[in-house]
Fold this protein.
Amino acid sequence: MEDDKKIAHDLMESSVKPKNILKNLKKKGRESLTNIKQIYNERHKFKKAKRGGLTEMQFLISKLEEKGHVYFIREKSKGQTLQDIIWTHPTSVKLFNNFPTVLIMDCTYKTNLYMMSLFEIPSTYFTYSVGFAFMMSEKEHNFTLALQALLKLLNPNSDMPKVVVTDRDTTMMKVV
């Protein structure tokens, strides 16, 4: 069983899906009694141990800082509830300043653990992503915050985006 855990942890570290971890364990040791529920439980423990005492959002912010990403957050009350988080990779900031011609904005509605919308801002036919945001809702102030954060990334002498493409979300169009 300990060998199974070691193998499972190595595969989890490589982001292998639980069903593929189970297949791998069954292939390596035909006598393995591990089932998919145990894999999911072990993955939960593994992720929790990796985070230490941090919540998922605190862990995300620590990783953003560790990797040098640019991010902006809005909290409901100081340090209590995260309302919105917008982040981007430093290379994306450079690309955005050099090629700000076309922005495509799209929101994926509340499909995650926190029921927050994922707002994605790719550029020029999905060549690179300018940024991402988790937002509590798709209201004007949420989109305004995301777009203001985006504008802060532009150098003062950079051009503004010439074209903005949306999915006909009227609130987003109004803010743009």
